[in-house]
Specification:
- The relative contact order is 0.14.
- It is globular and about 55 Å long.
- It contains nine helices and eleven strands.
- Helix 7 runs antiparallel to helix 8.
- The chain has 281 residues and is of the alpha/beta class.
- Strand 9 and strand 10 form a beta hairpin.
- Strands 3-2-1-4-5-8-9-10-11 form a nine-stranded mixed beta sheet, with helices on both faces. It has a two-stranded antiparallel ribbon with strand order 6-7.
- Helix content is 40%, strand content 23%.
- The structure holds 3-hydroxy-5-(hydroxymethyl)-2-methylisonicotinaldehyde.
- 3-hydroxy-5-(hydroxymethyl)-2-methylisonicotinaldehyde (PXL) binds next to strand 1 and helix 7.
Length: 281
């Protein structure tokens, strides 16, 4: 049975090699049965962990695209933003949200800034402060611990934090203005890794975990956020969508374990799409 199809827009870069941002968001959200329009923020020859990447800034296209789509009276069920390539892009994305956020539009901001306590290349504290402002426009934000630290101008909680520390961090993050917060990459013991969720409307805190896979990989934040967006727009609800995204990310990491030499730069999510579709699309 076919149903009315939902439409999302993914605002993110195209890293031509590297399996992250739009080359992850487009297939995953589409696989969930959601139309995925794209608003590319930059085109890079490869993501920033590759030596010598090229960077073509597309900031000037953002507002032109917004104006055209306004004329077309496009409706989005979801606006999902990820990697933004310049300070000006952040305010243009704010303007984009103001133009297209309807009553039934879900806004998810993944405040892509860094990982493992470090900012990605070319990002600064000023950029992080602007990203914190964009978070105010979101219904849901999905930072990792590094991004949480930079958004709040706090020390990075490396290892050794408690569940109380995480609850407090979630509450502080929600004060940036988003109704719901998901902190990704949270681990309270050696063998598991998961996500901590907070809904500021109900005050509810939830933790969901799966196996901790020993190998870390680039792009898993994008795989997680894209799966979360696809599931949430599909109608699975906040917590269930976070569970689907967590389980799928673990499956993708497992699918890459024996292929790390060739695929050090991303996860083999492609092999896992059929099972995602079968279970949830
Ligand atoms: O996965 C986050 C990401 C997105 N886009 C670009 C990146 C990264 C992480 O390194 O370099 C260009």
């Amino acid at each position: 049975m076919y149903m009315k199809q939902k439409r999302a827009v993914a605002i993110n870069d195209i890293s031509c090699m590297g399996k992250c941002s739009l080359t992850v968001a487009l297939p995953i959200i589409s696989a969930m049965g959601i139309e995925t329009a794209v608003l590319p923020t930059a085109v890079l020859s490869a993501h920033t962990a590759f030596e010598g990447f090229t960077f073509c800034d597309l900031t000037d296209e953002i507002d032109k695209t917004r104006e055209h789509w306004e004329k077309l009276k496009v409706h989005f069920d979801c606006i999902y933003s990820g990697y933004l390539g310049s300070l000006r892009q952040i305010s243009l994305v704010e303007k984009f949200i103001d133009s297209f956020k309807a009553e039934d539009t879900l806004v998810v901001v993944d405040p892509v800034l860094g990982d493992n306590g470090q900012l990605y290349k070319n990002f600064t504290d000023v950029f992080a402060a602007e990203m914190a402002k964009l978070c105010a426009k979101a219904d849901v934000i999905t930072p990792n611990l590094t991004e949480a630290a930079y958004l709040l101008k706090r020390e990075y909680l490396g290892d050794g934090y408690t569940e109380e520390d995480i609850k407090e961090l979630l509450a502080e993050l929600s004060k940036l203005g988003a109704k719901k917060v998901v902190l990704t990459g949270i681990s309270y013991d050696e063998n598991s890794l998961g996500v901590a969720m907070y809904d500021s409307l109900t005050g509810e805190y939830t933790y969901y975990k799966n196996e901790k896979i020993s190998s870390m990989s680039h792009g898993t934040g994008d795989v997680w956020a894209s799966t979360f967006v696809g599931s949430y727009v599909k109608g699975y609800g906040f917590e269930k969508s976070a569970e689907i995204a967590t389980d799928f990310t673990v499956e993708c990491l497992k699918a890459t374990l024996d292929d790390k030499e060739e695929h050090w730069y991303g996860v083999n999510f492609e092999q896992c799409l059929p099972s995602l579709i079968k279970k949830y699309a």
